């Protein structure tokens, strides 16, 4: 639950933060900015950096609240050596989620459309990180769709960090593997089960791809403005 909800917070808060892009388009504030020497790419970079920061901070706050609750109520202790890797995955997840949301926001020009889509994104995020339905219960096609969302890898890595101590010390090997497959703790790509480090590489690769797409869209918008 902690892993899934933290990942959802990263998606939804970055999307809400990027709502400023839509507001600036609708109020024509974006047009005022374009009268200066600031390029569309630079403007987009400012939106992405600020939204990524908000997403990262909100994930940390969500984690603190949830871990504090489960510690007090259920007496669950989270390994202290997991905190730093978790922060790393939260940061990668925040950047990836923001870039993906930026691509979506690029095609939205009214606050009405944004508010309606925001509700859809909030609901879809739960399925995207396999929290509403466990990963192991999904069809192969649905599992493939889940693996196309960067935040699902963040959730997978967080599950691994949070459950590693329990699964290693208190479960037989066969039961541990069943739990990994059912909860989606380590995704498989082409039959290979990813390690946490490989999961980080996958997220980083997705970030690079999303940056290329965002830069490409920004370049097209710049050319359109100059024509």
From TrEMBL:
The chain crosses the membrane at residues 44-66, 86-108, 117-135, 200-221. Keywords: Membrane, Transmembrane, Transmembrane helix. This is Abc transporter. InterPro entries: Nod_factor_ABC_transporter (IPR051784).
């Amino acid at each position: 639950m902690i892993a899934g909800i933290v990942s959802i917070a990263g998606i939804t808060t970055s999307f809400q933060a990027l709502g400023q892009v839509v507001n600036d388009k609708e109020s024509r504030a974006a047009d005022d900015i374009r009268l200066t020497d600031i390029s569309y790419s630079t403007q987009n970079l400012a939106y992405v950096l600020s939204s990524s920061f908000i997403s990262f901070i909100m994930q940390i706050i969500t984690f603190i609240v949830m871990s504090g609750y489960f510690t007090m109520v259920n007496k669950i202790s989270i390994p202290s050596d997991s905190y730093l890797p978790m922060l790393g995955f939260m940061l990668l997840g925040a950047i990836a989620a923001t870039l993906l949301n930026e691509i979506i926001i690029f095609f939205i020009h009214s606050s009405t459309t944004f508010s309606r889509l925001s509700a859809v994104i909030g609901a879809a995020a739960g399925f995207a990180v396999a929290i509403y339905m466990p990963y192991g219960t999904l069809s192969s096609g649905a599992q493939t769709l889940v693996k196309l969302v960067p935040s699902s890898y963040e959730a997978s890595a967080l599950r691994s960090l949070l459950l590693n101590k329990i699964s290693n010390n208190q479960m037989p090997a066969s039961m541990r593997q069943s739990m990994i497959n059912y909860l989606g703790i380590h995704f498989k790509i082409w039959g290979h089960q990813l390690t946490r480090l490989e999961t980080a590489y996958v997220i980083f690769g997705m970030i690079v791809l999303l940056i290329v797409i965002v830069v490409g869209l920004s370049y097209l918008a710049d050319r359109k403005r100059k024509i």
